[in-house]
Design goal:
The chain has 174 residues and is mainly alpha-helical. It contains 9 helices and 2 strands, in the order E-E-H-H-H-H-H-H-H-H-H. Helix 6 packs across helix 9. The longest helix is centred in the C-terminal third of the chain and has 23 residues. The chain is globular and about 40 Å long. The chain starts with a strand and ends in a 10-residue tail after the last helix. The N terminus is likely disordered.
Length: 174
């Protein structure tokens, strides 16, 4: 991370700027699964538990959206590949990144899940607004909503693992 000094109205502020490595040339830093097998298995267990009772198509859409927001190419490649194998259309896959402008590609329930994904993934910006939570709660019963939240938390964890360890898109071992 670098910092930039900005002078405005006789005041100097420091702005943090994120510098991302060129992942095309960065070698993986660590094999998380081998270095921390218990932690890796725990995340796998959370992932499996989160998916229970959720539509597999919805699961992939949520994972794709969070991966877009987190700029995780590794997970984005993995989940778009899985979605294609499950029969998801190319049109919908292309529209996930701009789902709010292309809402007619998604059901009301999917839109509610994507909105919740946005809010939870960007939780530091504004928390989870009541209207976003209420919209999701209108489409998911309490158990489904808990699983959806767990799914969003899990994909954010996977994104952070992949980004922190410099995983390269297209190299998943599945």
């Amino acid at each position: 991370m670098t910092t930039t000094e900005i002078k405005t109205n006789d005041r100097t502020t420091t702005e943090a700027t994120t510098v991302r490595p060129n992942t095309a040339t960065t070698t993986p830093r660590l094999n998380f699964a081998k270095a921390a097998p218990k932690a890796f298995r725990a995340v796998i267990g959370l992932d499996a538990a989160a998916r229970e009772g959720l539509d597999p198509t919805l699961v992939e859409l949520v994972q794709i959206r969070a991966s877009h927001l987190n700029r995780c190419a590794y997970c984005l490649h993995m989940h778009t590949t899985d979605a294609r194998k499950a029969g998801e259309s190319e049109a919908r896959l292309h529209m996930v990144a701009v789902w709010q402008e292309a809402d007619h590609f998604f059901t009301e329930k999917e839109q509610a899940a994507l909105a919740l994904t946005d809010a939870v993934t960007r939780i530091g910006d504004a928390g989870v607004p009541d209207e976003v939570y209420d919209r999701a709660a209108a489409h998911f019963d309490e158990e489904e909503l808990a699983h959806l939240l767990a799914l969003i938390l899990t994909i954010n964890t996977w994104n952070r693992i992949a980004l922190s360890t410099a995983k390269r898109a297209g190299t998943d071992e599945r």
